[in-house]
């Protein structure tokens, strides 16, 4: 057997999603070396379509890190969203705008997650010439309870490597391996539905997102650009995406999004429809020794609150500050506080995402008798949210994103 090739860096990062790449960027800005190891190819991670809402604090951070040039040119600033629902079951739906600018003085930016990933990869690899190792396999994390952890892996060319480092960041997403090394306690909730998502070559007809509560189930109207619409339908959890014809998807979207004065433009689907399960999950603690979990590796939110990428980025901000403090002052207190600091924001986002999910989806489809009490509560919450300034402000400040460090 040939010997492993040995290398060294300060921070070994597993995963080149938003968490791993933003961490690498923040560390580089602070003069700290890192190596990013990614299981997939660059083309694959750049093409993966996911959510597309950036909180105000996320945009601020990307600007401070100097990676928001294209985001500022092409991102779509939004100052509100609409909640769409009927006053009475089966009645005509109406839009109720939640005006973020008026309520909390800030907004969100619609910009696809894969665009953020493309910008971060271009900044790191093409502009700064720093390393991201794609298509690695067999990643294993060692000795995290010592001050000399390491990561072993097989590179794309088949050679075996050991990367020695001071700190390991487990940014390898929900299906990654880092979480099992931390062996945290897991709490979770699985929802009895999924989302079928489509991306369509169709001009959005309103420039804001619409969250629609309908007797048939939830629908979401979003967009990616002035030419591309992103749409979602609540479906049973075990739905095969291929079992819905294009005609059926459009028909159901037209039904669930119908509202006076609103037109849903149809168009060619730009990728195969996909179904995402809906779950909430929190792993704690998010640290074991010198291994720190960040992003989807540590927590999952249902997409209704659009928090996934934002939380991942909030985590690595805390981690980057802790790592900087360690190298600057030899002070490990940032490491000690990491998990508790992150988990405060994580639980706020978990609550908000659960709240939005509970208020907007149909929960009774699996029971013949339905759940009239649950539906009554949902209608009451929707009405309260759109008629009380206090309730609308609460939704707005959570949606737009509480300032980092505020929770
Ligand atoms: N070795 C190396 N890389 C791995 C491994 C492994 N064993 N397992 C997973 N990865 C990679 C994945 O291929 C992926 O590119 O880790 C990366 C994790 O990225 P994300 O799943 O995007 O997770 P994260 O960076 O935490 O971002 C969270 O992404 O999941 C979406 O919508 C979610 O917005 C949320 C955000
Ligand atoms: C999206 O545009 O993909 C999107 C927007 C808002 C959400 C979820 C997804 O809550």
From TrEMBL:
It comes from the Bacteria. Keywords: FAD, Flavoprotein, Monooxygenase, Oxidoreductase. Signal peptide: none annotated. GO terms for molecular function: FAD binding; oxidoreductase activity, acting on paired donors, with incorporation or reduction of molecular oxygen, NAD(P)H as one donor, and incorporation of one atom of oxygen. Pfam families: FAD_binding_3. InterPro entries: FAD-bd, FAD/NAD-bd_sf, RIFMO-like. Residues 8-353 form the FAD-binding domain. This is p-hydroxybenzoate 3-monooxygenase.
């Amino acid at each position: 057997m040939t010997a492993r090739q040995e290398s060294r860096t300060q921070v070994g990062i597993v995963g080149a999603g938003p968490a791993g790449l933003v961490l690498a960027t923040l560390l580089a800005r602070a003069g700290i070396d890192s190596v990013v190891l990614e299981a997939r190819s660059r083309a694959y991670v750049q093409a993966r379509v996911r959510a597309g809402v950036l909180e105000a604090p996320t945009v601020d951070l990307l600007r401070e890190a100097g990676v928001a040039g294209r985001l500022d040119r092409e991102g779509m600033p939004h100052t509100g969203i609409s909640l769409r629902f009927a006053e009475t079951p089966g009645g005509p739906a109406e839009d109720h705008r939640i005006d973020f600018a008026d309520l909390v003085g800030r907004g969100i930016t619609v910009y696809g997650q894969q665009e953020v990933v493309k910008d971060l990869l271009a900044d790191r690899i093409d502009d700064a010439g720093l390393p991201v190792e794609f298509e690695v396999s067999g990643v294993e994390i060692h000795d995290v309870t010592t001050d000399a952890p390491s990561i072993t892996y097989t590179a794309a060319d088949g050679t075996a490597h050991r990367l020695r480092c001071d700190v390991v960041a487990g940014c390898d997403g929900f299906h990654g391996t880092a979480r099992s090394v931390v062996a945290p306690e897991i709490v979770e909730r699985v929802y009895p539905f999924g989302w079928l998502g489509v991306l369509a070559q169709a001009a959005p007809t309103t420039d804001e997102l619409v969250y629609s509560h309908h007797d048939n189930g939830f629908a979401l109207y979003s967009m990616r650009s002035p030419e591309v619409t992103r749409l979602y339908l609540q479906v049973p959890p075990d739905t095969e995406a291929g079992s819905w014809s294009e005609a059926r998807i459009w028909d159901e979207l037209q039904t669930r999004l119908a509202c006076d004065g609103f037109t849903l433009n149809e168009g060619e689907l730009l990728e195969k429809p996909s179904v995402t399960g809906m779950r909430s999950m929190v792993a704690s603690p998010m640290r074991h020794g010198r291994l720190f979990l960040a992003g989807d590796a540590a927590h999952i939110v249902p997409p209704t609150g659009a928090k996934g990428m934002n939380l991942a980025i909030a985590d690595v901000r805390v981690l980057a500050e802790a790592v900087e403090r360690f190298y600057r002052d030899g002070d490990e207190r940032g490491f000690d506080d990491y998990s508790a600091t992150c988990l405060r924001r994580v639980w706020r986002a978990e609550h908000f995402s659960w709240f939005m999910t509970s208020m907007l989806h149909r929960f009774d489809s699996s029971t013949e008798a339905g759940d009239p009490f649950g539906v009554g509560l949902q209608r009451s919450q929707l009405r309260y949210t759109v008629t009380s300034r206090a309730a609308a402000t609460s939704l707005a400040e959570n949606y737009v994103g509480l300032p980092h460090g505020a929770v």
